[in-house]
Amino acid sequence: MTLQYQREIFAKYTKKTIRVYQAYHEQIAKEALRLQNFGENYNVNRMTWIKPSFLWMMHRSGWGTKKNQEWILAIDIHRAVFDDFLKQAVLTSPQVHALDGKQWEKAFAETLVYCQWDPDRNSNGDAIGRAAIQIGIKGEAMQQFLQHGILQIEDMTPYVRKWNTQRKAGKLNPKQLPVEEKYVVTDTTIRKRLGM
Q: What's the whole-model pTM score?
């Protein structure tokens, strides 16, 4: 991605939590909603990606129509955990404005948290002039997410289905969608490493 995209985090958040989205098949989603955490159907041995941008998640999952992405969950996680992920995160590819090649190789080899920027989207799936962040976690970072990160999990699937029907009919009111505001990151080390 070029730097024409504004690299800032936009999210729905409170003083204590930040909302991220994930898409799953029914078995994982129903178990997560019942437990208010992820259970035995969830594979803790693979990397998972959390995404604060609702419309990027809609683009990625085809508004909940892609296979094994039919259920959309909103996960409110503690900001302290999310902020800790940002401190650990390393871009998935080297970029000159972040770390030089050798610095990046070392950081990438040692981290359990990854950052990727993709063009954020509007409700029609068109790219807009800013980037959407994805945070990938595995290993101990995954355990931190599961054991200390999650405050609540909400099923967004009925809303997504309704909004997608309205969207395809040209009748979606964008004001119905989750309101996301700039999530201020002032730490200059984080900003440099993540190319913000």
A: 0.90
